[in-house]
From TrEMBL:
GO biological process: L-valine catabolic process; thymine catabolic process
PROSITE patterns: ALDEHYDE_DEHYDR_CYS
Reactions that this protein is recorded to catalyse: 3-oxopropanoate + NAD(+) + CoA + H2O = hydrogencarbonate + acetyl-CoA + NADH + H(+); 2-methyl-3-oxopropanoate + NAD(+) + CoA + H2O = propanoyl-CoA + hydrogencarbonate + NADH + H(+)
Pfam hit, one: Aldedh
Keywords: NAD, Oxidoreductase
Stated family: Belongs to the aldehyde dehydrogenase family.
Source organism superkingdom: Eukaryota
GO molecular function: methylmalonate-semialdehyde dehydrogenase (acylating, NAD) activity
Domain Aldehyde dehydrogenase: 34-498
One Gene Ontology CC term in the entry: mitochondrion
Entry EC number(s): 1.2.1.27
Top enzyme category: oxidoreductase
Name this protein carries in UniProt: methylmalonate-semialdehyde dehydrogenase (CoA acylating)
Amino acid sequence: MLRLTSRVPGVLGALRRYSSHAAPTTKMFINGEFVESKTTEWIDLHNPATNEVVTRVPKCTQDEMQSAVDAAVAAFPSWSETSIMTRQQIMFRYQHLIKENLSEIAKSITLEQGKTLVDAEGDVMRGLQVVEHTCNITSLQLGETLPSIAKDMDTYTMRVPLGVCAGITPFNFPAMIPLWMFPVAAVCGNTYVIKPSERDPGACMMLVEMAKQAGLPAGVVNVIHGQHDAVNFICDSPAIKAISFVGSDQAGIYIHERGSKNGKRVQANMGAKNHGVIMPDANKENTLNQLCGAAFGAAGQRCMALTTAVFVGESKEWIPDLVERAKNLKVNAGDQPGADLGPLISPASKTRVCDLVQSGVDEGATMLLDGRDIKVPGYEQGNFVGPTLLSDVKTDMKCYKEEIFGPVLLVITVDTMDEAINLINENMYGNGTAIFTTNGATARQYTERIDVGQIGVNVPIPVPLPMFSFTGSRGSFRGDTNFYGKQGIQFYTQLKTVTQLWKAEDVSHTKAAVAMPVMK
Ligand code: NAD
């Protein structure tokens, strides 16, 4: 029997063991078992704070990936026929297990991804909330009924699973984003193959281990690893009916096109450039703190990070105070007490961020705070960049046009809210935006006129809770149906419509059952 209070024992040790390789390996998860890959190609995964190798991630062979799909195909008939209340019970147990193991998962995230422990716990928590919401499947998967549409005739719809679905995830939320995917798919009756980011798959491996402990049958969720070949395999596999992707534009556009061409349903959440608009009537203290947290938290490696501050009118006088606050943030390894932001994911990422900052300077922006040469004692090999602020940024600069994905805040000043709205609506992305104001009418007008999918009013990172959906728009999204919430259920199900005729004259009368019916 499952002990809900038990922790997943030594999960890192269970998932990786020292083998003939120089570093522990990350396994696949196929048909309910952790399996060592037989590949000859491995990707070294480094701790971003030290650049020491933590594990080696396989580029799975074609046969291994096929066996994951085969397991999902084999599991589908019985899983899709498992009652919804049974699936719901598994999700109840699952959310409990995740909660119990939250800090262990967070430690794995900090080790592989670099973010601070408290931020890593938030990563798990936001995914956990999606799992908690799946416990509501008994309401979420309801169809519709129109009785007596004609004489003795009723029409009703059923939401039924698609079959085998697949997910491809980015490095920046190693727990939350896998949890946007396979629990929602599985609770609807689908089976799943997930390819977590090759840069930090550890949290996903822990999460599938817990799903198994919660009672998810073998084959319902499978994990493969790799890069382009794994992505192409998923896009081309005839058995896979739908693909969920979260990551960069380049990969998202490619996967959306290739998957769609193969007749699959595809949802792709991609890059962003999120603007925070600061009105002169805003609460100064709160606004500056929120800007700092949303721009530099997670070292800016959030698709909903506020990357551009648009100061309207006199609010620009607060810019020096913003710089002072940014200076006070503590950059350190994610597991060190008091760290506000950790390292970037890789040396290449650090180089890219620094080059984009330099391009801004070269194109005429003013450097207000330069975090590029930061040294973190004890972690000299880490990929650290400190909070960086550039002002006098223009919309034709490279640093504005490209997603930086680092702790860099661009500062733009305008005279009116109209100018701010026009500037933001001309940007290609539509993931998120925030306005800081104490005037309800200003906020209302902003939310009406801004063409961005997720808007915060005095909320810097307005990622919706899972009773709503993640509704990034324009260049930040491809597909028709968004992640999680009602939209997530729609993505992972299709409608069947039944029109039935039961003639009144055919009614038969049987003996009444008097015992209380028990549904299972
Ligand atoms: P990425 O695109 O490099 O990787 C995402 C996944 O795609 C990985 O599993 C990777 O193996 C695969 N991949 C990478 N390059 C590929 C290619 N050329 N062809 C096919 N597959 C490829 O993204 P990342 O660097 O891991 O994540 C950061 C990006 O993700 C940022 O652009 C960020 O804005 C975006 N993101 C978006 C959201 C959102 O909800 N909109 C959320 C998180 C992250």
